[in-house]
Amino acid sequence: TNQSTPARRSLGSPRLPPQSLTRRYTGLQGAVPGVTGMGSGFTIVPAFYTSLEVTDLQQGAKYTFCVSSIKNDVVDQDSKCSVSDLGSFEKLDPPEDLRANEKVLGWSGTETSTYLVEWFPNEKGRAGNEVVTGTTYTLNVTAGTWNISVRTVTSESSSDPRLNATHISGLISSPKQSGSKVVEVVWWEVPTPQADSAYVVTLEDGEMPSPQYTKVCSGDSRKNDCSLLFTLNVDTSKVTDINVSIQRSTLLGSSYFKLEPIEEVNPALSVRSANEVVVEWQKVDNAKYYIVSLYQDASLSNMRWRKQQTLPLRVTVQEDNLMGNYMTIQACVDSLHCGDIYQTSIMHDTGG
């Protein structure tokens, strides 16, 4: 039986610990059309996942677990596989008293034992894992809330996890491409500050001098008032270092960002009636999906409808009183890189 799952490195053995494939994903499951030899089980998980838990396996059986990357809806045929023998599973005692003090983790156990440490972001951030010897570990993660799991492991087995959460103070910056040459930088603090502060945003791309911008805002992620828009030149070989600092402290939030070349969508609208419009467009190179939105007027402040569309390159909008409303469509490479927004009004004589 084959199960496709994100695998982590084993401990001196080509076989994976039978119980160490953690973090269940309940999204799209099932065989991928046109892909053969994938066995009886197949699961698709987001790229930021680093592990998966596979349950309801046959006791004592051998399983082959394979990992394949998926890009632009195409499955890479160069799978990485490993065999796991459930018959060699050894019951292990889990670590005890898992403690978290900001980035420093500690637990009770044997100093010579090996442990699998995993961390998952509560909101933004990148999950990860590492196998360590000893009973302490220091996380290298951004500010925010992180869920922690620690298991005792050997080359063949792993224990049940011990779970905890840690809250790491700091400043978080999150850039996003919202146009062909536009980057929006959003930032906030953890924990939320009690008063507004002056924040300094610096862009460094190897050119001198580096521009600086100052904005006074709350630092509260719920208010979403700490953001700036920047226009950058598209250079796929250049990475921009974006630093956000606070004038009242030494906190610094850093992130690296690269613009992607994304063409503008040029759609065609067909008005079927005052309550129905069909939007069609041609494929944009490298676009993974398109965001189609309906607004009350040209200010684009009152959204009536929105859809994220992959295929087909066509959507039908059915809403009351569409005449005079505005449609927008935007191509996106991923959640952090989207092109310019095409905007058009809905009129009786539009297309058809």
UniProtKB/TrEMBL annotation:
This chain belongs to which protein, by name? Uncharacterized protein
Q: Which organism is it from?
A: Cherax quadricarinatus (Australian red claw crayfish)
Sequence segments annotated as region (Disordered):
1-21
Lineage top rank: taxon: Eukaryota
